[in-house]
Amino acid sequence: MSRYRYLFSPMRIGPVVVRNRIVFSAHLTNYAEDGLPTEQHAAYYRARAAGGAGLIVTEEHSTHPTDWPYEKLIHGFHSAVIPGYRRITDAVHRHGTPIFAQINHNGGQGSGMYTRLPVWAPSPVADPLFREVPKEIDRREIAEIVAGYATVASHCKAGGFDGIELQCSHSSIVRGFLSPAMNIRTDEYGGSLENRARLLLDIVAAVRDAIGRELALGVRLCGDELIEGGTTVDDAVDVARMVEEQGLTDYLNTSIGVATASLYMIEASMQVPPGYALFIPSALRKAVDLPVVGVGRFKDPLQAERALAEGHCDLVGVVRGQIADADFAAKARAGLADDIRLCLSCNQECVGRMGLNRWLGCIENPLTGREAEAEARGVDAHLATQPRKVVVVGGGPAGLQAASTAAARGHDVVLFESSDQLGGQARIAASVPSRAEFGDIVRNLVHACRRSGVAVRLGRSADVHTVMAERPDVVVVATGAEPARPYWAPPDADTVVDVRDVLEDRVRPEGHVVVVDELGFHQATSVAELLADRGCTVEVITPGMVVGQDLGVTLDLEHWNVRAAAKGIAQRTDLVPMGWSRGTLTLLHHPTGENVEARSDWVVLAVPQHPVESLYLELRNAVGVEVHRIGDCVAPRRAHAAVIEGERIGAAL
Ligand SMILES: Cc1cc2nc3c(=O)[nH]c(=O)nc-3n(C[C@H](O)[C@H](O)[C@H](O)COP(=O)(O)O)c2cc1C
Ligand code: SF4
How far is CA 406 from the centre of its chain? Predict the structure, then answer.
């Protein structure tokens, strides 16, 4: 009997029975090639089925050739997809898990860049991200859209799917029709909500006709577009009632925001509280009897159980939670919730890579996105043939990952950490209030080390003698990076300091502080907020076009700008620091070539670091020991690189 009474009770969704309430809801993966599903798709979903998910819903499949907003979209309208569908469904069914296909036309939330065709939408209202005026579709084209959904649904049926989900929520022509902000038609598809919902109901009817009653059919609705004049939860409730009255749909899924204008709320980062979108399924559930899925930053099984127990929803979408840990459900069921590698809601390697047209990964799970490769190599069952003594030096993400992977493979592992706490720079990064959840990466890695039996020596600076005294067969050096002083900062200027000096409390800047952002990530914005909270007057300057440039793809930029404005933090761009003298920072405004001065009491630097490599270089000359180095002591980068290199070396020993 599971401790999660609601989460692990089976339920019926139309003709399909799910063994638990945990849904791996739809999400792009960029694993498709030439519009077709791949082996990687099959392996990716198989891993989540094996990991105990109750229901899997695939990423969207396009229903019409006018819809191609991003390169690696599955073109469901070609029958060539069917063998790939079959590979996916067979792989998932082997674990007794049902799998639905999400089908969609993105409407005006796209461009003609790939198709060389106009985009189709209810009205010629340009999407704020794509900025392309769509063609208002006429009756004939509406009929073509409806027929396209039916065709793709029949391809899905032929490919062995157990159900179809219509994405009518955050990026969809159907959402466009439902939205008063996007639909300004005056015919029977515009105006009243009944008219705006007509396309949705037409599609539901056509798809049901195509799949019959043996497959489940679901509708994913947007509960609040979060845009001026857009749909709200009351509209969603009314649409849900219409869908239920039609009598052809088996469940409702939910979402919040519009994939382009308010994407930062769909895949909310750690700045937004867990379960933030629960008011939507909650409202729908009060109005209809259809099962309703609630989604939005469910990180651990207890949160999910609570949402069910409190009656907000019937099923819980756990997307990033299962991207980070494919075995989320199985671990929860077995009472091993502590073993779950908690998602950080950092968006760095999942959402962030989607925005860069790369395949989906995870900052803390190096196997995500590499499941097919791992299956081919049989990584799961990979125990070391010859157990060895391994010494790891450095307790940041690289060292912790290397140690836990090596120990899990049967090696005898000792880890040295010079400070009295594990986590390295990840722990420091998590020390500011709005970034606390980043610290879960340390929690997860430390837990994995403990579970696999790594012997940790804290507060022990390891030199060549300490390391060699352990009689290691292998040494893995993960000594990280240290702050570096830019050429223009005088060595004796003690009010010019590094971000780490502030976050580790070695200095306490006061008064007017300029933060220099040359990294374009959380370092500058985090320290700026911390200092503003402490009463400093803060200005962030950057040579880039925006402060925190890379926060755009992780969906943190909007939140940062809101908080920066609220805290009175000034931001200035296009400025390159050139020199510092007696409280004056000289800056080059590179678009004009003019020098600008900024007076300040302190300068805090978020600039590139130096690798700490001396131990590695010394050990390399020691006789008879195999030495590797990983992570920032090779080249200072972000946490994903540390984890990947830790995993790679741990798996190779
Ligand atoms: C990388 C990524 C891509 C997504 N793509 C889709 C999609 O194609 N269709 C969809 O309905 N939702 C999509 N979503 C939204 C998720 O279904 C879900 O609503 C969102 O991730 C919040 O759930 P979570 O906090 O459990 O991750 C995507 C989410 C992520 C992380
Ligand atoms: S990259 Fe970050 S947000 Fe995405 S799944 Fe991994 S831990 Fe979660």
Answer: 27
